[in-house]
């Protein structure tokens, strides 16, 4: 096929589609006297995409992803292949749209797979990420405690207690003891005050005769009412 040439009114015939079009509808080409190539922009784009797909397949063995029509307020998840509403995607600061690339179920599945592959499970990941110890260190510390809670001696505690200021691990506690320290904000004065409070308000059984007990407390009596 002969090379196209510019006609008198500044038009050119595309080598692919065969149509005569104005020169400004042809792709730029600095090697041509007119500064325009042999293919119109539409045909040039088709050729470029085909060339890219061929190189991608030959070099990496991959296919070009097909552009999908996604309605506003939705996003395509490449893992499950579904188009879902944006609320079905987790929030992400790394994405310009403020949402992650994968929907929540797929995002969670990927996170589980990563934790399993890198740490052997979610438990190991949680311990290392939050406390800086692994399951081996946890088991060793629990063994040193006799496999019971370091405070109430309840069996099989599962909660790591740590200093909230330094992050240092202090021991393994049961759910109640660990939560109790947190409620008292690790303040020894508050804990000592609680002990004194319980001593002064807790009812005690005192044996005064075989089989007979007196219930006593050091709590002060209520003040008499005004009507009495």
From TrEMBL:
Task: Tell me which Pfam families the record gives.
Answer: Endonuclease_7
InterPro entries linked:
Endonuclease_7, Endonuclease_7_sf, His-Me_finger_sf
Specify whether Isomerase is a keyword of the entry.
Answer: no
Q: Which UniProt keywords apply?
A: Endonuclease, Hydrolase, Nuclease
Q: What GO annotations for molecular function exist for this entry? A: endonuclease activity
Domain of life here? Bacteria
Q: What's the protein called, per UniProt?
A: Endonuclease VII domain-containing protein
